[in-house]
Amino acid sequence: MEARLNLFVFLSLVAAAALLQGSSAQTTHIVGDEMGWLVPPGGEVAYRTWAAAQTFTVGDVLVFNFGASAHNVAEVSKDAFDSCNTTNPISISTTSPTNITLASAGEHHFLCTFPQHCGFGQKLAINVTAAPGPQPATPPPAPGAEVYTVGDGLGWLVPPGGAIAYETWARNKTFVVGDILVFNFTNAVHNVLQVTKAEFDACNASTTTTQPITASPARIALASPGEHYYMCTFPQHCSFGQKLAINVTGGDATAPAPAPSSPAPMPSSPATPSPTSAAPPPSAGGPSTPSPLTPPPQSSAGGPSTPGTPGPLTPPPPPSSGSAASAAAAALPFSFLAVALAFFV
Ligand SMILES: *[C@@H]1O[C@H](CO)[C@@H](O)[C@H](O)[C@H]1NC(C)=O
Ligand SMILES: *[C@@H]1O[C@H](CO)[C@@H](O)[C@H](O)[C@H]1NC(C)=O
Ligand SMILES: *[C@@H]1O[C@H](CO)[C@@H](O)[C@H](O)[C@H]1NC(C)=O
Ligand SMILES: *[C@@H]1O[C@H](CO)[C@@H](O)[C@H](O)[C@H]1NC(C)=O
Ligand SMILES: *[C@@H]1O[C@H](CO)[C@@H](O)[C@H](O)[C@H]1NC(C)=O
Ligand SMILES: *[C@@H]1O[C@H](CO)[C@@H](O)[C@H](O)[C@H]1NC(C)=O
Ligand SMILES: *[C@@H]1O[C@H](CO)[C@@H](O)[C@H](O)[C@H]1NC(C)=O
Prior knowledge:
By secondary structure, this protein is of the alpha/beta class. Among the domains are: 2-129, Immunoglobulin-like, CATH 2.60.40; 147-249, Cupredoxins -  blue copper proteins (Immunoglobulin-like). It has seven helices and 15 strands. The protein has helices at 2-24, 45-52, 78-83, 164-171, 197-202, 323-330, 337-344, and strands at 28-30, 56-57, 61-64, 73-76, 91-93, 98-101, 106-111, 123-129, 147-149, 175-176, 180-183, 193-195, 218-221, 226-231, 243-249. The strands form four sheets. It has a five-stranded mixed sheet. Strands 10-15-14-12 form a four-stranded mixed sheet. One 2-acetamido-2-deoxy-beta-D-glucopyranose (NAG) binds at residues 227, 245-247, 258-259, 263. The site of one 2-acetamido-2-deoxy-beta-D-glucopyranose (NAG) has 3 residues, from loops. Residues 251-326 are annotated as: Disordered.
């Protein structure tokens, strides 16, 4: 009897182990192994050789070990990788180790933004394959991590009121490294892709080689501090407002929190839209100091925003409706859901 019981327990354990192995075996890759993340003595062939010996799957984790304040880790577009252009990274992390969960299939590119480091070979390009099985591997939330469903009940779609829907959603939230975004959407109708600020502003992801996540719900762990940008790559969806920009603060308590007030100028009250409330922001505060992540302020002479230089969070209004109409619609987000779906499904 006891022997039978032991056999049963043993077989159960074997089955459970096989199941774990098959479904979401998450591999941790120590970038460069013992060498770590530095300017490699032999040039960029070092990380190319390292990557060639690995198989990267969605859900795997890259661990970058480096001397703090001597290096950093930035994910960049393919163009930026090829030319070692460090001005506009997708994300950047300055703390070691930096653990990055590979959230999407396709090519991912990393480099160090310190002067000359990329040029001397501190750069890594990898190919990530989709996880086997129906569900992409989902990173488990770290203890204390928040899980945010983007748009809450609205989910991830072309919002009835335009981009203001996700601006409003993100506005009073504090995102910390390790938190998880859940994008809940209709498969084959929408997807989600992390992009650079330039791609976000232009609603043009054609320069990126990373594949969007196509299976809902998409769980994305916020792996690094700084600004993060997401969009749907279906035609027109981003320009009609299916885009999300957030600020992520470092996991440690010493990191400065983002200013909770006025992340972006918004109409004062969605319930009482006036024709002027949705117009481009007046230059009341004067031009702010430009930073690598901030586009130059718009010229005030041009009147309505020029299509070529959209503000960070104010895309050009859809051709079918004016800005005031968008603001009005934002006041009634859920009742227009059916209308929006009818247009975009
Ligand atoms: C680097 O990329 C930015 C946009 O991402 C671009 O404006 C700039 O001209 C590029 N710099 C070089 C030297 O190519
Ligand atoms: C990063 O990954 C390494 C190796 O798995 C682990 O030891 C370390 O605790 C992780 N750090 C964080 C901040 O998750
Ligand atoms: C990724 O795979 C594609 C197709 O096999 C190949 O063209 C590309 O060079 C690979 N990229 C990297 C960074 O290995
Ligand atoms: C954040 O916004 C939500 C929805 O607009 C609101 O219910 C909540 O009270 C706000 N929280 C804070 C701290 O302002
Ligand atoms: C995603 O949305 C569907 C329908 O809109 C809903 O039934 C489901 O509960 C949502 N899932 C999550 C994780 O929010
Ligand atoms: C998107 O960007 C690519 C490369 O910068 C450009 O060739 C293409 O015309 C752009 N597409 C649109 C719709 O602007
Ligand atoms: C992030 O925070 C910075 C500084 O507070 C701010 O200038 C920027 O607009 C914010 N970006 C987003 C996407 O909220």
